[in-house]
Amino acid sequence: MEVLFTLASFLLLMILGYLFGSFAERRHYQSIWTREAQYRHIVVVNQRFPREKNVRGTQLVMGSVVISVDYFKRFLATLRTLVGGPLNSYESLLDRARREAILRLQAEAEQLHSTRVYNLRFETSSISLGQNDRIGSIEVLAYGTALIQE
Amino acid sequence: MTSPDDYEPLQENPQLPETINAPKVSIVHELWLLSAGVLATFLLLAVMVWLSLGWLAQFIPLSWEDRLIQPVAQSWQTDATEQAQLQQRIDQLLVRSEYSDLSVQVHILSSSELNAFATLGGQIFVTEGLLSALESEVGLDFVLLHELAHLVHRDPIRAAASQLGVRLLTALAIGQSDLGAPTAWLQSTELLLSRHYSREQEIRADDFAFTMLQRVYGDVEGYDEFFVTLLEQGDTDRFPAFLSTHPHTQYRLDRLRQRLD
After folding, report:
1. Neighboring chain B residues of A91 at a CB cutoff of 8 Å
2. Cβ neighbours around B148 below 10 Å, total
3. For A127-149, how does the pLDDT look when each residue is reduced to its tens digit (9 = 90+)?
4. Which part of the chain is the Peptidase M48 domain (chain B) (predicted)?
């Protein structure tokens, strides 16, 4: 009986994780594509020395995202750790997080009327490290220097 | 060589390629593939553990088995006359079948079910229902000899060792940190009452009982009373034979009848 209960809750969590996870992922990518097109004019590069004219000032801009893995993907990753190989289920998650972080950075740059962000850097850190039975969450932070031009 | 100053700065962010950093793969497909692989490996391991421990357990000394059973067995000591008679019967069978060095204790269970089983530490359980249903001595002796055969073949300890192995393996696989749980099971009554002998073990015990009955009585007329009574009571097997731990009653009876011919 207890085994059945555990199995049922596992299956329920897997199904919920999959349904909500893939729904959220599809919707997020749609939004990423739209906003990437919208902010295309805000150029983000990781070059350190700008070669722009008429620069009035610079300012730090940041975009930060915290994401959590869903149950389904975490289970898949657990299985993956047994045999090795690419963790596809996490790759799309991190791809979304990095792109979202850049988009937020671009949003901040736009508020400053800047169209150039130099010296882009990423920081990625786990914020649920060492907690065995918790679903893992990470933060992706993108930061750079926005040039404010005349 | 171009210097860093020669190129035109970007006027627009490039469109990102979609399939490089996050390749489009079906994660459901990946899940099936991975879980099937992991499950198959686990099952293979479990079968290997089951078979090897079952084989190794026959070398466990009888005294160890007795010591294992001692804490639980103490609660069964009763001295009813019927039990004493049955004990005497078993002792005689042991002497006459040349296994007199085997120490066996018999217990009567108050249950109307038709059942008898052998378990760890040379313990045999017979239900009251079975005792009243079997009228002939040969019929009863066949059942007792069948259970003695399990003890002679060390089936209880072999089944227990196999089960313990698989329990430990499962505990390891699911990351259960308390490995004491499977080992505590060794001390439990659940273990004593679980008699998952394989079909091969049952058939072997039938053959042993039959041979011994021939040796003790010469004529085995009436040996099949237990099977016949079971079948009369409508012991229809609910599961196909390969799913059941016990072979079908009809099959066992037919086998022994063929042997008699």
Report:
1. 21-23
2. 25
3. 876 556 566 788 999 999 999 98
4. 82-259
